Amino acid sequence: MSIQRAISRSRSAHTLANGLVLTGADVLAGAPATGTAARAPDDDAGPEVQAGDILIPVIGRKINARVATPEQVGAELGTGVQLLRVDPTRFDPWFVAGVISRTDNLRVAGRASSTGSGALRIDIKRLAIPVLPLDQQQAYGRAFCQLVEFRIGLDRAAANGAALAREIGDSLTAGALGPPS
Fold it and tell me: CATH code at 142?
């Protein structure tokens, strides 16, 4: 098991390359990399996301560990994301992501951040992962994967519902719709 973080960028004024990097928002949405990072000629690229990697935003109100999606594989890790790489012959990535996302782990791994928003800085090195036989981990892992897919679907439905309510309100205000009778 290894933990990786994005490397610090030099503050050189001679930036030559921009690369797409994976942000915390990308991780939560299961989206491909949308962030950018300017790189000086002497800067190395950050860690690259591989299949089975577990991605955890550094700052949050809760721990949201997600297994990298196929669209995220190959992306460079952004500064707001931590990467946990497990040996798949010993650990199921979805199982590990599920157990470290437990609500009570926030009290163990969360420390006040300097954002002032009430968000916490997540230190994944402080978390414990139960060791179960791999076949049991895989069974739990499938359940955790389905739960993440369910949450993503709920988030999309909530966003679509909010957009619809906004459009109805705008149409009522503009006179394109009349009030219900």
Answer: 3.90.220
